[in-house]
């Protein structure tokens, strides 16, 4: 039987935004960004209260359907514990529906906060491998989830379980070259990953597959050892051209950056763009161009691995 958590426990999690694909690494390559959501959970005698401030505060359900709560419930089950009631507070900084991994961050945050709760009972928490597996089951692919769990750059992959019951999700970290600077360009425009994924063809040619395999392999080299190869290594023919018509402003700004020698890619399914550069600044003529007017462009450091802390509520 599951152990019942006492009321009065608190735990806090900070979980990073992420960008996936990085051009050719479709559903495989991911990178955490230094922008964080925070989840604070308190166990109480009964009921569920969900409070959200910041990004998406007026758009997400304040019920058990909230992704953070779904992550918590799944994590509690995997850890063999139950909560009589909870107050869940979400402080969101990651923009929603921009291709910055807000959904993955919500699930990872919910799962990881369980570790902060069970640590107070001297029970083992969920391992990194478990966090990646469980979060990826929500997502259907491990790129954003793995980056949110591990921080930094990651290579992820999926394999069928031997018993046919589903998929095994795994990831390995990459040591990002210290000279690489990240410049997210975030628009107000929103996009649905599910809708833009529908634009992708069911089948691709052998030529296109071969092209992307070569660029994805080269991108690992560029990210870790040869930043000078980033521009050619981020070329893609499998998903970015297909999504361009649905996000014309994004496609135009991305191409502007690439014409100036900057390795710019669609962040996940967009509409945000991520520019990777060995230079500490982007060219002024790019930032001042008409194509840039819809984007908030800033330099951002690489995101850290998910972190959790625990403590006991002090009455009053």
UniProtKB/TrEMBL annotation:
Pfam families: GHMP_kinases_C, GHMP_kinases_N
Any one GO biological process: threonine biosynthetic process
GO annotation, cellular component aspect: cytoplasm
Localization in the cell: Cytoplasm
InterPro entries listed in its UniProt record: GHMP_kinase_C_dom (IPR013750), GHMP_kinase_C_sf (IPR036554), GHMP_kinase_N_dom (IPR006204), Homoserine_kinase (IPR000870), Ribosomal_Su5_D2-typ_SF (IPR020568), Ribsml_uS5_D2-typ_fold_subgr (IPR014721)
Keywords: Amino-acid biosynthesis, ATP-binding, Cytoplasm, Kinase, Nucleotide-binding, Signal, Threonine biosynthesis, Transferase
EC number: 2.7.1.39
Pathway: Amino-acid biosynthesis; L-threonine biosynthesis; L-threonine from L-aspartate: step 4/5
Binding of ATP, residues: 95-105
Span of the signal peptide: 1-16
Molecular function via GO: ATP binding; homoserine kinase activity
GHMP kinase N-terminal domain mapped to chain residues: 72-152
Catalysis performed (reactions): L-homoserine + ATP = O-phospho-L-homoserine + ADP + H(+)
Record domain GHMP kinase C-terminal: where: 235-289
HAMAP family referenced in this protein's UniProt entry, alphabetically: Homoser_kinase
UniProt record similarity statement: Belongs to the GHMP kinase family. Homoserine kinase subfamily.
NCBIfam families in the cross-refs: thrB
PANTHER family referenced in this protein's UniProt entry, alphabetically: HOMOSERINE KINASE, HOMOSERINE/4-DIPHOSPHOCYTIDYL-2-C-METHYL-D-ERYTHRITOL KINASE
Function: Catalyzes the ATP-dependent phosphorylation of L-homoserine to L-homoserine phosphate.
Protein name (record): Homoserine kinase
UniProt source species: Mycolicibacter longobardus
């Amino acid at each position: 039987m599951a152990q019942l958590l006492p009321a009065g426990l608190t735990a806090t999690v900070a979980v990073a935004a992420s960008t996936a694909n990085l051009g050719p690494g479709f559903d495989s390559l991911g990178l955490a960004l230094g922008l964080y959501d925070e989840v604070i959970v308190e166990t109480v005698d009964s009921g569920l209260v969900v409070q959200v401030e910041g990004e998406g505060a007026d758009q997400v359900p304040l019920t058990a359907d909230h992704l953070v709560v779904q992550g918590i419930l799944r994590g509690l089950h995997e850890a063999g514990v139950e909560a009589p009631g909870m107050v869940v507070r979400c402080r969101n900084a990651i923009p929603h529906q921009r291709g910055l991994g807000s959904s993955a961050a919500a699930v990872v945050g919910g799962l990881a906060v369980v570790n902060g709760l069970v640590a107070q009972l001297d029970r083992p928490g969920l391992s990194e491998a478990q966090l990646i597996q469980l979060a990826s089951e929500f997502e259907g692919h491990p790129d954003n989830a793995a980056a949110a769990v591990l921080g930094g750059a990651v290579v992820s992959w999926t394999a069928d379980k031997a018993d046919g019951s589903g998929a095994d999700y795994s990831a390995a970290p990459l040591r990002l070259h210290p000279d690489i600077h990240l410049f997210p360009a975030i628009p107000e425009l929103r996009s649905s990953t599910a809708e833009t994924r529908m634009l992708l063809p069911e089948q691709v040619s052998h030529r296109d597959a071969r092209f992307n395999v070569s660029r994805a392999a080269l991108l690992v080299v560029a990210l870790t050892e040869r930043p000078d190869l980033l521009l050619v290594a981020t070329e893609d023919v499998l998903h970015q051209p297909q999504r361009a018509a649905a996000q014309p402003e994004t496609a135009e700004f991305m191409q502007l950056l690439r014409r100036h020698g900057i390795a710019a890619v669609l962040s996940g399914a967009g509409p945000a763009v991520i520019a990777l550069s060995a230079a500490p600044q982007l060219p002024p003529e790019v930032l001042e161009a008409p194509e840039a007017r819809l984007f908030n462009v800033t330099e951002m450091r690489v995101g850290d691995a998910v972190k959790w802390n625990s403590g006991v509520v002090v009455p009053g």
